[in-house]
Design a protein that fits this description.
It is built from 14 helices and 13 strands. The protein has helices spanning about 15-20, 40-45, 60-65, 85-95, 100-105, 110-115, 125-130, 135-145, 180-195, 200-205, 250-255, 275-295, 335-340, 350-360; strands at about 30-35, 50-55, 70-75, 95-100, 150, 160-165, 175-180, 205-210, 215-225, 230-240, 260-270, 300-310, 315-320. The strands form three sheets. A five-stranded antiparallel beta sheet has the order 11-10-9-12-13. Helix 2 (about 40-45) crosses helix 14. Strand 9 and strand 10 (about 230-240) form a beta hairpin. It folds into three domains: about 15-120, Rossmann fold (3-Layer(aba) Sandwich); about 135-145 and about 215-360, D-amino Acid Aminotransferase, Chain A, domain 1 (2-Layer Sandwich); about 150-210, Dna Ligase, domain 1, CATH 3.30.1490. By secondary structure, it is an alpha+beta fold.
Length: about 375
């Protein structure tokens, strides 16, 4: 009952360095799909002097125009069409650097990003494939020496409270808690009948030990130019219905057989107790060190760890994202950790644009894109 643990192999069919050679470096645009964290990315681009490109369906550009953040619009019928030749041609005409976020993993096959998308992207495409697989995520975290939850191979092995998670970036949609094979089967059947999951999802789900504690999601940036890990912020999620179900008295919960779900509806910025910061910073460094071994050249730019801190202040890591996460949106212009580091207004979108700007300035842009 796993999510596919075959290690992806890099199979680029185009030479990104050659594409960059053709770019007018004085007219770089920062581009992304108009969803997820595009406001963050576009605002950061503007703050650093870059024009932006919003890839979206017709009508969905309204939000980004309302905030004055979309300079160029590329319309697509479906987000999967970003790999179409005409879209790629236009992106290259605009000297675009594409910033991946969660919607890329949700809508575009990983193989297609590696084999068909010949536009420079900030980040490591192979690590985005690792992110798609729950098993490979766990392998990455274990290779980094982090404490991770126990993983159950099949429902019949369940002997404690577990969290059942589906593959891909879906914001917690459909996840559920079980404590036995019987409860797993009942709740999985409900998910399939309600359309929250498919039979294929059921085959590829991950059954993870449920860790009781507080969710703490640190946001990091690894700069290839400075060879340095930066802790820029921390957030926690607000999830439906698990964060609202407590308003219903326990007898009514039992009577109505309510089962909490974990669909993310928002994020809160979080300041953690200072005694935890050394460990939180160190595990970020360990993840980057491990990334250099599993997918050269390793981590580039933003990444996020999803952790639980227990009552004994033990940090348990259960997921990793190899790109900007939506939790960074809670800290546009106001992250205390980024301010401590830069002594100015700094946030993930701006930090991304700053790295690209420095890459252009130092003639090292090829080190921050793939």
């Amino acid at each position: 009952m796993v999510s596919g643990g075959r290690t992806p192999k890099t199979r680029f069919l185009c030479d990104i360095d050659s594409v960059l050679t053709e770019y007018n470096k004085s007219k770089i645009h920062i581009a992304t799909i108009g969803r997820h964290s595009a406001l963050n990315i576009f605002k950061g681009a503007h703050d650093e002097g870059f024009p932006t490109v919003c890839i979206c369906k017709k009508g969905e550009e309204k939000l980004y125009k309302a905030y004055g953040l979309a300079d160029e619009i590329i319309h697509v019928e479906e987000y999967e069409r970003i790999i179409d030749d005409d879209v790629q041609d236009r992106l290259r005409e605009l000297n675009s650097i594409v910033i991946p976020h969660g919607s890329f993993n949700a809508y575009i096959e990983g193989d297609e990003l590696e084999t068909k998308f010949c536009v420079p992207m900030l980040g490591n495409r192979t690590l985005l494939q690792w992110e798609r697989s729950r098993d490979l995520q766990t392998k990455w975290l274990q290779n980094a020496g982090l404490t991770v939850p126990k993983i159950y191979e099949k429902p019949s092995d369940i002997n404690q409270l577990v969290l059942v998670k589906f593959p891909g970036a879906r914001g917690g949609k459909g996840y559920f808690i079980a404590d036995s094979e019987e409860s797993f089967n009942v709740k999985m059947d409900r998910r399939i009948k309600s359309g929250l999951a498919t039979k294929e999802d059921a085959k590829r789900c991950q059954i993870q030990e449920y860790i009781i504690g507080v969710s703490v999601y640190p946001h990091y940036f690894y700069s290839p130019l400075k060879k340095q890990v930066e802790l820029l912020g921390v957030d926690k999620r607000y999830e439906a219905s698990v964060d609202g179900i407590g308003r219903i008295p326990a007898p009514e919960q039992l009577e109505n057989k309510l089962t909490p779900s974990f669909t993310v509806v928002g994020n809160f910025p979080l300041v953690v107790r200072e005694s935890l910061l050394p460990e939180i910073y160190e595990i970020g460094e360990k993840v980057v060190e491990a990334s250099h071994k599993i997918a050269k050249p390793g981590a580039i730019g933003p990444f996020c760890l999803e952790t639980i801190v227990t009552e004994n202040l033990k940090v348990v890591a259960f997921e990793i994202s190899a790109r900007i996460v939506a939790g960074c949106n809670a800290e546009i212009g106001q992250s205390p950790y980024a301010y401590l580091l830069y002594n100015e207004v700094m946030y993930m979108g701006k930090r991304i644009a700053r790295e690209i700007k420095e890459g252009v300035k130092q003639n090292r842009l090829g080190e921050v894109v793939a």
